[in-house]
Amino acid sequence: MNKTLRFMAVPTLALAALALSGSPAMAADQSYQSTLKQLNGSAGSGTVTVDVTGNQAHVVLKVSGMPATFMNAPYPHVQHIHGGAKGVCPDPSADTNGDKVISTTEGAPSYGGIVTTLSTSGDTSPAAGLDLKVGGQGAAYTVDRTFELNAETKAALQAGTAVVVVHGLDPATLSPEGQAAKSDLAPTLPLAATSPALCGTLTAGQMKMPAGGANTGITQETGTDTGALAIGSGLALIALAGGAYAVRRRNAAA
Fold first, then answer.
1. Across residues 182-194, what is the average pLDDT?
2. Whole-angstrom Cα distance, residue 46 to residue 152?
3. Pairing status of strand 69-70 against strand 73-74
4. Which residues contact 227 (CB under 8 A, 6 or more apart)?
5. How far apart are CA 172 and CA 174, in angstroms?
């Protein structure tokens, strides 16, 4: 009798082990994206995706329709991930000094400070935020690169407060007050050079597929119900065990 009980306990243990091993681990990898909207009368447009794998982030930022030249050279647009604030883009009420331009400082209560500089090459630290040499060039450009996430950027992404801001306006489109004003960040530059032109909150989208998995572009939770699989497999084991037990009973009876 004891041998029989031990024999019948095997499928139950197998079921528990299968249920545990079949439970998917929580994946930390995630994709974030945004369609950038216009600020300060900008005529530009843009999209951005940030694919996070562990502590690495791959960003693809595509911008078009922006001012093409600045001081007789390709316009050195700079762009960043901002964080630590409300996680939204500013509305016209953010123009507190009445010059009809939302400056970077006036927009900060909405989108926060710089946490990552999305440069075309080189430094991605907040300190590189005004480095025009690594900014996007001209009316249309793409930033496509991989960088290591710092703690502030990761926290902003996870909290839903990460906002991408592209800077650089056409001075001719600003009000007379705006055209005459100096940058709130770099007084040697005009206000147009550093004021926000495009803005978008990064929102979590499709969970990244494991390496080798097919990316269908459709958000999926899990293609296989591992709980049902575990139960089904466990019942199959029980059925097999029951059959073996019945054979043993018949043999004993014989």
1. 94
2. 24
3. antiparallel
4. 19, 22
5. 6
